[in-house]
Design brief:
This protein is α/β, with parallel strands linked by helices and about 575 residues long. It has helices at about 5-10, 45, 55-70, 115-130, 150, 190-200, 235-255, 285-295, 310-330, 330-340, 420-425, 490-495, 520-535, 535-550, 550-555, 555-565, and strands at about 75-80, 85-90, 100-105, 140-145, 205-210, 220-225, 260, 275, 295-300, 345-355, 360-375, 380-395, 400-405, 410-415, 430-435, 440-450, 460-475, 480-485, 575-585. Helix 7 (about 235-255) packs across helix 9. The radius of gyration is 27 Å and the shape is globular.
Length: about 575
């Protein structure tokens, strides 16, 4: 028995570090799903009355026992975490070839662990309690804990805003990388393993289980899709999620006594009445990644202040309903995926801003009342949720585009950047490696006024403006050409277009761009700079703007000369030059 289970049995479960707002009373038909105390297949969470959640070793042991007891269950490894733990999935299947797969994962944020305990209950009931008909037309593949290293760093101080279990894991992995920000850049071994699993399974539905932050409300189970469906990049799979998945799951949850809604992401948690946000997403997130590759993907966001028991039961109901609608609509989903894979978007939306006019309203939004008090800790007015249901009219704040880039015919990657091409290979993005040099007219990009952001997710992100210029270039042997005309062309664009917020450039993959050009004597640099200012109006304009905007730069002679030298000629291929070139259409 693990430490949390032992503590639960002794009645000494760790206490939360603070008192959360009052929970709203709840009862529902889904309570009948909980196993009896003497059931030999009771899950660890059920055995503790949902006060605790089992650690990785206890989950593995329970699943190994279930695997031995049922021919429907198989436990397999598919990778290793940063600390060497084996990542596992459970396949629930009646056998047969070519059966579509529903892929469900728990614990990518290991303190938001509802999916794990709901999945264990559902697997038990499929294997041993008569729900095997869920597998008649689909297989279920379940990853109980995605972020295992973060999961086993349990503490009562992790996720203190989430009502139960008593101790929870951490958000990020052992290197403090949030795996739900890593789907595109693939820095973590866990992310690479998951992308490999997705590619091998090609699921018709992918479900990622989380718990929300934000504000108090009456809704207990919320879920959404990339761009809330409204701003999806691939329309066919998004339409299936909105038209078929959402209504089926909402009906099942309501019938079971839960209160579902599309995830209400708040504009301002201190002022819920300001509205909820719908917005496009990039491929760093599970839902965004699924959208970019044309795979129906669902984000489950259970409400943080609902008791753990209620949240787990709601997740169980959602997962069971998801299996049913996926089985019923398997052919329709396959057709939607095929439509999206055949599409060839010619542009990528890269920037957007809130629309000043709401794009819709939720009438009678089921909120919770609060007042405010002067906190001696913060020195300001803070919220105090009162546990009293209220309703109000909630605006939905959408987005309008501010920047869109037109995709090139292809991207060219020099042979030295094998870390980039390796990530493209892991994603399944098609490319070719040339065996002899080629001379082409290519669009090259120079960074203007780059800025390093605060380090996050193991990277120093870069922001900049970009100057595009077409020039003749010789791409050496071993260079890689990535065509945009492919099923994953939009994903390639998000990774390689410099303006993309999820590009390798934006994540800081090319720090050599920010290094200074080789220096020389000041009298030479001054003469070169003077000639440049006299002969290149664009450089002079940017130089004058920089002098006006940055007094410290204007007062630093060496910085001024270094900046001008970095703009000069083709003799400095690295400073402020993006190494990946763009082959424009028609060339």
């Amino acid at each position: 028995m693990t430490i949390p289970a032992t503590l639960a049995a002794q009645g000494t479960v760790p206490q939360p570090p603070l008192t959360l707002p009052p929970a709203l009373p709840w009862s529902g038909a889904s309570e009948a799903l909980v196993a009896k105390a003497d059931d030999p297949w009771i899950t660890p969470a059920e055995a503790s009355a949902f006060r605790t959640t089992p650690r990785y070793a206890e989950v593995r042991a329970w699943l190994t026992r279930l695997d031995a007891a049922s021919p429907l269950i198989t436990v397999q490894g598919f990778g290793r975490t940063g600390e060497g733990r084996e990542m596992v999935y459970v396949r629930a299947s009646k056998g047969g070839t070519g059966k579509p797969v529903v892929l469900v994962q728990g614990g990518i944020h290991a303190g938001e662990i509802d999916g794990k305990d709901a999945g264990l209950m559902l697997l038990r009931d499929i294997a041993l309690r008569g729900k095997d008909s869920l597998l008649d037309k689909v297989d279920l593949v379940f990853v109980p804990i995605y972020n295992i290293d973060g999961h086993d760093r349990m503490s009562a101080y992790n996720f203190p805003h989430v009502r139960g279990p008593a101790e929870k894991g951490r958000d990020a992995n052992a290197r403090n990388i949030d795996l739900n920000r890593d789907y595109a850049k693939l820095d973590a071994p866990e992310s690479r393993a998951m992308i490999g699993l997705i590619r091998s399974l090609d699921p018709i539905l992918y479900i990622d289980c989380h718990v929300s932050e934000g504000f108090d409300m009456q809704y207990d189970v919320t879920f959404t899709y990339a761009g809330w469906g409204t701003y999806a990049r691939h329309r066919a799979t998004a339409d299936w999620l909105e038209d078929r998945f959402g209504p089926a799951v909402q009906a099942a949850l309501t019938k079971a006594g839960h209160i579902p809604i599309i995830y209400p992401s708040p504009i301002d948690t201190r002022h819920p009445e300001k509205g909820i946000r719908y917005a496009p997403e990039g491929p760093r997130y599970s839902t965004g990644y699924g959208d970019f590759i044309g795979m129906p993907t669902v984000l489950v966001e259970n409400h943080m202040l609902k008791p753990y028991r209620q949240r787990v039961l709601g997740t169980y109901v959602l997962l069971e309903a998801a299996l049913k609608i996926a089985a019923q609509d398997a052919a329709r989903i396959a057709a939607a995926k095929a439509t999206d894979h055949a599409s060839r978007p010619d542009a990528l939306l890269t920037r957007w801003t809130p629309d000043p006019t709401p794009i819709g309203w939720i009438e009678n939004f089921k909120g919770v009342a609060f007042d405010t008090y002067l906190s001696p800790a913060s020195g300001r007015q803070e919220q105090r949720w009162l546990g009293k249901p209220v309703t109000f009219r909630m605006p939905i704040i959408g987005q309008r585009p501010t920047e869109t880039v037109r995709l090139p015919k292809a991207w060219w990657i020099p042979p030295a950047y094998d870390d980039v091409t390796e990530r493209l290979r892991l994603h399944g993005i098609r490319f070719e490696t040339i065996q002899t040099p080629r001379t082409l007219a290519l669009d090259r990009v120079r960074l203007i006024d780059p800025r390093l952001s605060q380090p996050i997710e193991g990277r120093y992100p870069i922001t900049a403006r970009f100057d595009h210029q077409v020039a003749e270039m010789v791409m050496p042997e071993g260079s890689v050409r990535v065509p945009a005309d492919q099923p994953l062309g939009l994903l390639a664009a998000s990774l390689l277009e410099p303006e993309s917020q999820d590009s390798f450039l934006a994540w800081g993959f090319f720090p050599e761009m920010l290094g200074p050009a080789p220096s020389t004597d000041a009298f030479v640099l001054a003469a070169l700079g003077e000639r440049l200012l006299a002969t290149d109006p664009a450089v002079k304009r940017r130089f004058d703007e920089k002098l006006r905007a940055e007094p410290a730069f204007a007062a630093d002679p060496d910085a001024r000369l270094a900046w001008l030298y970095a703009q000069a000629g083709a003799g400095h291929p690295y400073p402020l030059r993006y190494p990946i070139a763009r082959e424009l259409g028609g060339e």
